[in-house]
């Protein structure tokens, strides 16, 4: 059994999900393997996958690793950050000229937040803001995603979400593969010797690239 963990926007979803990738995912799972999406989208996303996209998956990791759902979808685990840091993050966002900011939808009642998301004026402003948050606030980790910055509990990331799914399935690190297209995907790509979408912002930095999910399925088969 092997695992493929794919980012959603800009990776699996590029103006829609191609029929080639849909077929590849279905074949991958039919062979007894695991396929999951790893995204910065919030807790409402798994229902969208099941209801609107008609995509059958094994797991969906949301809020940059803070929420793990099975394919039904049912929430299995949540890792939330403390509520008291929200006001500090809001002030930091205002100081850095954020265009929008706030707690992302979590869909469950918790004392804290799953993810705090911020939209900056450009990629450079997002990079500077993420660095400031990571330096000033030990309670959380900030990940740049283009102009956006996603903030979750310190120690949580897309990589930790994949690690947990692999643990639940009894899959070793050597049999897990990650793929993404932006800076917030780097932790999981680096942790799992993963791939970048060809032509993406991180392709040159990662080195190993794939045209699409279907190509990665072929590579992962060995």
Could you list some keywords that capture this structure?
single chain; 222 residues; alpha/beta; Rossmann fold; Hypothetical Protein, Haloacid Dehalogenase-like Hydrolase, Chain: A, domain 2; 2 domains; eight-stranded mixed β-sheet; four-stranded antiparallel β-sheet; 34% helix; 23% strand; globular
Describe the structure.
The chain has 2 domains: 3-78 and 157-221, HAD superfamily/HAD-like (Rossmann fold, 3-Layer(aba) Sandwich), CATH 3.40.50.1000; 83-153, Hypothetical Protein, Haloacid Dehalogenase-like Hydrolase, Chain: A, domain 2 (2-Layer Sandwich). It has 222 residues and is an alpha/beta fold. The longest helix has 14 residues, at 123-136. Helix content is 34%, strand content 23%. The chain is built from 8 helices and 12 strands. It has helices spanning 19-30, 45-53, 86-95, 123-136, 158-169, 186-191, 203-206, 213-221; strands at 3-6, 34-38, 59-62, 67-70, 75-78, 100-103, 116-119, 140-145, 148-153, 176-180, 195-197, 209-210. The relative contact order is 0.18. It has an 8-stranded mixed β-sheet, with helices on both faces. A 4-stranded antiparallel β-sheet has the order 6-7-9-8, with helices on one face. The model has no long low-confidence stretch (mean pLDDT 94).
